[in-house]
Amino acid sequence: YHVGGGTLSASNPRKTHLNFRNGLSLLIKHMKPGELMWKLPVRLSLDWFAAGLFLMSGKPADAKAVLLAHLDFFKNLNSDFSKRNRLKKEMGGFEVHRVYKNLLPFQYFLLKRKTFGDLDAS
Questions:
Q1: Residue 67 and residue 75: Cα distance in Å, rounded?
Q2: Distance CA 110, CA 22 (A)
Q3: Distance between CA atoms of residues 93 and 87, nearest Å
């Protein structure tokens, strides 16, 4: 049973670390190769931007958590690719349903869409 963040507070750097690391791992394991080619570099860049924002807002532990998440991600890359290959065989491909197709940071920061219902559905 997963309690959606119930065990760690939102301000906990460990939660920051896990969220950033697991988000990268999720991309490796589930994205089609063509999507992965552009989404992974964009995601890594956005993560570094977020780390900079953490630093500028006086949260150096969260900035460090992003760096450590990236180090863990690259350390586990072979394992994630092995899982990717196993999932591809088991599922017959990378068909992922109900994935939001637009860029959430663009929607959130530039278009000020703050809730799921505000998002552009296209």
A1: 12
A2: 25
A3: 8
The closest alpha carbon to 32, from 105, 97, 104, belongs to 97
Q: What's the CA gap between 64 and 27, in Å, rounded?
A: 22
For residues 56 and 107, the answer to whether their CB atoms sit within 8 Å is: no
pTM of the full predicted structure? 0.76
* Listed residue (58, 59, 26) closest to 43, CA to CA: 26
Instruction: Find, among 120, 117, 84, the residue nearest to 100 by Cα.
Output: 120
pLDDT tens readout for residues 11-50: 899 999 999 999 999 888 888 888 889 989 999 999 999 9
d(CA 102, CA 34): 16
Distance CA 23, CA 66 (A): 11
Place of tokens 């791992």: 25
Tokens at 36, concatenated: 């992965």
